[in-house]
Amino acid sequence: MQEELLLTPGPTPVARRTYQAMSQGIFGHRTSRFKEMSAGIQKKLQPLFGTDNPVAVLTSSGTSALESAMVNLVDDGDTVVLIVSGVFGGKFADIAGRYDLNVHVYAVTWGEAADPKSFGEYLNGLDNVTAVFTQACETSTSVLHPLSELADVVHNYNEETLFIVDAVSALGGADMNMTRDNIDCIVSGSQKALMLPPGLAFVAVNDRALNKVHSLGNRRYYLDLRMYFKSLEVDYTPQTPAVTLYQGLDDVLNMIHEETIEEVFARHKKMQNMLRRGIEALELELFVKEDAASPTVTAVTSTPEEIAHIKNTLEKDYHISVAGGQKDLAGKIIRIGHMGFMFPKDMLAILSALEDILSKLRNKNYYGKALTAAQESLYDKA
User: Disulfide bond among the record's keywords (predicted)?
Assistant: First the structure.
């Protein structure tokens, strides 16, 4: 029986060595063993975020990291702007709507990246904006936003306005760096490019954002970042952590640094380019233009009938799992993940399956076309 090839944009495959690391056996989280592991994790985690500051690790889902940024970095009555270009931008806006905030939504057409110039014009029409929230990668559409340019817009508006980025489906796959890109806060989760099962969330803040964390009152408990950063001073956690996931995190960070962060980013770009060139050779339509495409997920569109057939047949006959569209894009796209513990060979596997599916469905010979295009991209022979 074939193993499933998991090519969804989360959760993503977990390496066998990481499963082994997580099965070493549970141990106490108030021990020197845990303290040493926590300290080592911080040393390896900070370069991935591009910060010298400690990174809060929460035992919870990625959504908790989004809400943590909201409750720790803005106060009641503050004016905030949400860049919304898909389902997950909408989730950030939904979280903001649950609090006593003055919320403005900058809507971006689904499938397009935020335009810094247009956003700057919008932002300059508002007064006293405390924070701007965006996705790095809008997973529901496969768009990657221009973070550095957007950060410049935000800080040119007001250097004290915080730029907060949801990087759940980007961190560890897309080339981003808090310091270089002038991002005040990055939040992420464990189950995507970080190659772990769901269950850990991450919040990194720069000094400007950290000052804001300490300036707010006592209106949160489990998500109070002050407790996490205080505990990290002695390499512990304020609450009981998921020790086995910490063991897995320690291993995946070792994997990333063994490969090197630069090569990890390069591998993700290779997979992105392979897949896009192969999809084009199959006469399918890419949902996002080249300059806005994410290196971690690709959305493909066709007729609703073809989309349904492709998704179902991949799962039934080839044991390849991809994701469908959400909300406005339900039934209109499939989303193929290429992040974390995925490699060029996995792109060849799905493209080979798509060649067969479309050759039979359209009664047209696609055999070898997508694979040739992908390999030419991989080996720079186009």
Answer: no
